[in-house]
Amino acid sequence: MPSKHLKKLRKLTLLHKTKKADAETAHAKATSTLTNIKKGLASLLAIKDLTPEAQATFDQADLAYKASQTRLENAETTVANLNASLQRKR
């Protein structure tokens, strides 16, 4: 039959194992959270404010892109109309 001290020792060992497991889980969660925060911070730090010259260049490129999109949409409409016209003539 186990002695009183041995029972107490086993109980303390079980308690410490449980606390260790809880601490390891908390550590893993904190590490994951920290990693996510670091990634978010890195992405925020990667965003640079544009200089006035860079902003002007960006704005011109954006306008050119929008104009290209409009031309593409018009060309697609024209092709669709031509295809419809050809289908009617057949």
How would you characterize this protein structure?
This protein has 90 residues and is mostly helical. Helices cover 90% and strands 0% of the residues. It has helices spanning 4-46, 52-89. The radius of gyration is 34 Å and the shape is elongated.
The shape, in one word, is: elongated
Q: What is the first-to-last residue Cα distance?
A: 101 Å
Q: C-alpha Rg, in Å?
A: 34 Å
Mean pLDDT: 86
Largest sheet: none
Q: Can you give the helix content as a percent range?
A: over 70%
Structural class: mainly alpha
- Percent of residues in beta strands? under 5%
N-to-C order of helices and strands: HH
Low-pLDDT stretches are none
Number of helices: 2
Number of strand segments:
0
Summarize the entry for a quick read:
This protein is mostly helical. The chain has helices at residues 4-46, 52-89.
Keywords, separated by commas or semicolons:
single chain, 90 residues, mainly alpha
Fold blueprint:
Layout: H1 4-46, H2 52-89
